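not sure who needs this but someone in the group chat was asking about Zinc protease from Rhizomicrobium palustre so here u go. i didnt clean anything up, its just raw.
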Amino acid sequence: MSGSFDQAKARAWRLDAAALLPMLHMAWHREVLANGLTVIVHSDPLVPMVYVDLTYRVGAMDEPRGKTGLSHLFEHLMFTGTDRFPENYSTRMQEAGAVMVNAMTSHNLTRYYQTAPAAMLDFILQAEADRMENFVPSLTHEKLEQQRAIVLEEKSETEGKPYGKINIWMAEGLLPAGHPRHHPIIGYADDVKGVTLEVAREWGAKHYTPANAVLVISGGVDVDAAIASVKRFFGPIEPGRASEQVVARSGPWQPASALRAQAAIEVPGRLYACWSTPSVCTEGRDNVALELAARLLADKAGPLHKYFVEERGVAAGAGAVLWPGRGCGNFIVDLTLKAPGTESLSEDVSRVITQWLENPIPDGQFQAIRTACLAQSVAALESFERKARLLQDGEVFHGDAGWFLQEGRILAELTEEDVRSLAKRWLRPEFFSLFVDAAPKLSADGAHTDDKVVSFSLDNIAARPPQWQEAVLACGARIRLVRRPGDASFHLRAIGKGGIAAEPRGKEGIATLAASALQFGAGPDDGKALAARLSGSGLNARLSAAVSAQQMDISGTRPALHAAIALLADVIQEPHFYGEDFERQRSAMAGMAETRAQLARQKAMRAQFAALLGNAHRLASAWPTSPELARSVSTQDVLSFHESAFDPSHTVFFLAADIELDSIVGMLNAAFSAPRHPVSGVAASEEVGLRRQGGIYLFDAPGSTSVEIAARWLMRPRNADVEAAALAFMEAFCGSFTSRANQRIREELRWSYGVTGQMFQLFPRDHLRLCTLDTTVAVPQAAASIGEIETMLSGFRQDLPPTQGEIDRFRRSERQRLARMSETPIRAIEAMEDMYYRGVASGDLSSYVEALEALDTGRIMALSDAIMPAGGELVWTVIGDAAIVGPQLADAGYAVGDTAKLWGDA
């Protein structure tokens, strides 16, 4: 690619959809064993990992009446071990070195998948074959009762979340009782409670057979060797029979109907207009057309945004999406409302859709959206894991692993008239309307397999940090480039200063408003034209406001790089912080702020930051803004903030692409003007100290049937030793379902679906991390759960630090993460950004790798004070029914903090 750059030509350039089809290519091998197991292998010798996906053709829609939830419950049971390998499956795999082990159940299928070092392939295949052959006879009443309790807790937690019942309401309103997709995937509680050991065993024996399964292997493997291993471990298993699947059906058509519900959502209201759509298995072309129709309707230049957002002004946003399925799918129009919706809005949706179906779609818009869809398909081929899922879905739903190729051809061939004609068959005037109004207050023995366990070595897994080249542009900004010869895709990121924490006093919310620039327009384009330009170039773009930075990301295919640079230059240098779109967004932010201010979660988050950073800190004030401030921020305020955030003196471009450094420097120099010195609109960074004002703060959610518990603290790793030790601690404590906190609270006590923990780069330039622990428990266990977590945390600091086994497991997982840092363009960008904040040279992670390899129990004990504060210095927030939880905390000896004092002198 030449270094010459013409901004006008780059703005006008559009990607030809036909040029994308040759980029949709991938090699794979498919074979069916004598026992009926379908095996697909994709080899990528540049990847040190392997992804294994074993999918069974059975899902929630195959469950008989009265046995809903059986598929999902059986998925949980499959992790409880067999007589031959009695350990928990996740524990065994992760301790051996797997970086990710998981499963999922849908209405359509049940999938078990994991990512691990390629050397583990035989170990994984042996374990999966053992589960397939030997789990059912190993299933016990004790295992069933344990997992039943966990599933019921998961159901309670999931459905207690703000959007937790949306899918349930949709299915029950859209489909008649008795339809195979009418019931929720997790099932009805009474049905789950009624599953007997005999019923569970019958389900597994019927559906978990070779003839009913598809095995996909993708990554750094040899095809012939992988097939030989599959035959070795799976070949001797009795075939069983392919399950008789529920017949695909989308009807019968239902008359127009509506349901109104309340949930603790963060906007005044939502309207979901829902249609039942045909099976993706039998009507593949129709589904491709419906997916394209959804993208066209959701486009900013589409009829939904034009009518509901621009003309009527009743919605802050409008979208559409297709959820395809084996039996049937759902087509959903989603309106984010500025006030609770009225029934007349359903009539408006019907009229808008009908008119759109009757009138030709502008050719420019149609071509742009089609190109964007094809570009997205090409981008899916970046990852060996996503390749595996494409192959798996093609085989399971279409009987053709290469369906993604056929899908691409259909996309390229469809005309706008085809799309409207096919969509008209399914988007009838009668549909189901779901109105959701904001409710600030919640209401109420292996005979056939080898006896010898497979062995392997992970000692040769090495870190692969990105190697970059660097230059300073004429405008003063810096560019760091990771060259990726032959890569069909690129990722470009620009990072400035700013962010939420740098908002000037009295202008809170300005960073979020500035990050909406793509909606308003830039350069010569208004918001609609800019959206069309993005689609037509096959680009994906996102502007965001982090805590301490403004950031823009653009990705696409290699030919579109010059168009991406033109877009980046327009957004950074010529944003449109004015006009109707700007006013609508400012108004929407004000309305959203009014709703959010009443939510317990928002109050809890403010309290956390007030206790951690002081009540005068920006993060302890309105989040992200207050109604009054949102209305008062002016165009000049936002422009000054934006220009200051992307001042070239502190802006860095990160690029992962197939291009030479000289070429990209020439293009960027041509796109960006000489050094600019904008008027400062970004507040000076506040000094961030490690404040340790612990306590428990209770936030009232009357009628809530569960309690949300969060613990927070700040940490500043002073060196690589502290960072490695802190990450090892977090992994051992709550990094997986088999970690200490989850073994205790999830598996033994059965109080929660799980405890999660993370370490966020809160202020990367200050190397300050926010450490979090979160869980949701039943109301009676609130105080006791805090006590259990405190006890375990104290143990880590004193007599029960991470064991060498837990440290070794973390080390193996971390080695694999480091080995994948350059795997895809986005991974390379994220690794390069992390290394930028660390201040290390290109490709140099030696200090962290050395700390990782030297990690042991003694080092973690010695660094425990640097990793986390003592128990009394943790900041706890508890969200639940205060009338019940308050006395419970008091009885347990916990003093609840006064939140008024947190903000009293702010």
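also Confidence is low (pLDDT under 50) at residues 442-447. if thats useful
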